Amino acid sequence: MVGAGFAGVGCVRRLERELAAAEADVTLVTPFAYQLYLPLLPQVASGVLTPQSIAVSLRRSRKYRTRIIPGGAIGVDLASKVCVVRTITDELVNEPYDYLVLAPGSVTRTFDIPGLTDHAFGMKSLAEAAYLRDHVITQLDLADASHDPAERASRLQFVVVGGGYAGTETAACLQLLTHNAVKRYPRLDPALIKWHLIDIAPKLMPELGDKLGRSAQEVLRRRGIEVSLGVSIAKAGPQEVTFTDGRAVPTRTLIWTAGVAASPLIATLGAETVRGRLAVEAELNLPGNDGVFALGDAAAVPDRAKGEAGAVCPPTAQHAMRQGKVVADNVIATLRGRPLRPYVHKDLGLVVDLGGTDAVSKPLGIELRGLPAQAVARGYHWSALRTGVAKARVLTNWTLNAVAGDDFVRTGFQARRAAKLKDFEYTDSYLTTEQVRAHLKGSGSDVSGSEGSGFEGSGPDQE
Ligand SMILES: Cc1cc2nc3c(=O)[nH]c(=O)nc-3n(C[C@H](O)[C@H](O)[C@H](O)COP(=O)(O)OP(=O)(O)OC[C@H]3O[C@@H](n4cnc5c(N)ncnc54)[C@H](O)[C@@H]3O)c2cc1C
User: Fold this and answer.
1) Ligand 1 pocket member 284 (CB < 6 A)
2) pLDDT of 247-306, one tens digit each?
3) pTM to 2 decimals?
4) Contact (CB, 8 A) for 370 and 359
5) What residue owns the CA closest to ligand 1's atom 4?
6) Using a 6 Å cutoff on CB, does residue 349 contact ligand 1?
7) What is the DSSP secondary structure assignment for residue 39, as one 8-state letter?
8) 370: left (phi over 0), alpha (psi -120 to 50) or beta
């Protein structure tokens, strides 16, 4: 099993439950020792939740018996059935398999925009969310201390790119953070704080439909967030961002959430892809490769419930979690010589938490706004957390934040650490198809990678 996200953990937990220990050994390759509950990441960035509360332990499970390899899969050779793993200490390990389940998720999709990967922050990992929170509070601290009006202006403007749920929630939750925090900075003029949310598409979150989408936009407008549609970034610099409509915005904070692309691991397989996601059948198996399955954000899974030819499931946690269970059943069916079952799931809708009591939700097609939408959003996320302890942590954090608010503490944990898009997703760790083959043949091709190209914190301070 590669990847311990919604898809991977859903699959592993079912395999542990359904398979006898004598029947199979389960191995999980994952850089982190937790399953990250990504939909609550904006609440970590805004300080409503602590980072630990959405990092759900992989080892807390009644039937836990999986062997965990701390690292990332950097290549797969389907012919020899070997997965090449780079451990978090930068060692290469060849892991043979009988059955392979690929659930490495996705990375932030970027474009060839000058300065983007050097200057933009991402919002896809726990480290990024924690860093962003510190960074935003740092801007308030430095603006407060500065006598230079130009510096103050650039530190107090924030740009979020991406009008999907990730970008909209991030902009809304962080705007609320700065709105509440500025009360503790009597020398700062709140009118100088400005949030921009931009997207090249003509609508925010088109999945919400016209009416609910307009409601979400109205909430953002009321909060003073300037929404610009049909607009992207032309170039990004350390202290200024230029929009495609020609506006130059002085800012030190560019947050990029404009979509995702399948994990680079998929390209190493040399198999058919659909827009970068591995093309699998409705049973989530890779055609022509018995015992290989893929799911979640990394796979293009036919959306049988839609009934349209060529439709694939969108990259959501809702699908990934459910696909995990179907893959586990199909691995077990293959092992026991039974027929596979297809994945069919009708979308249950969308919940969007805009911070405070603002939210919009569309469960089962019913449009909700404000408190009822907030209750559905939080209730849904709470129930989807995998362990009772994680549920208790999140509930405690929500209650504490509602009662006592935030202290807006800048921790400094990540100060001076490179923390832009290019620093978090390890996209240069992967091998090419040829490098995988050469490595497995032991032909001496150098696949060790550059220093620090490994997963998690590999590098000088990891022994
Ligand atoms: C800010 C934000 C908000 C979101 N909100 C929602 C929402 O409200 N509702 C919703 O349905 N979806 C939401 N999503 C999308 C949802 O989180 C993803 O669709 C879902 O996480 C996909 O599950 P997955 O298991 O495929 O990937 P992930 O959950 O991303 O898991 C992939 C796992 O694989 C690991 N990994 C990566 N590369 C490797 C490798 N080479 N080897 C081994 N392991 C690897 C990663 O560390 C990770 O643990 C949101 C996403 C973001 C970023």
Assistant:
1) no
2) 999 999 999 999 899 999 999 999 999 999 999 999 999 999 999 999 999 999 999 999
3) 0.94
4) yes
5) 39
6) no
7) G
8) left
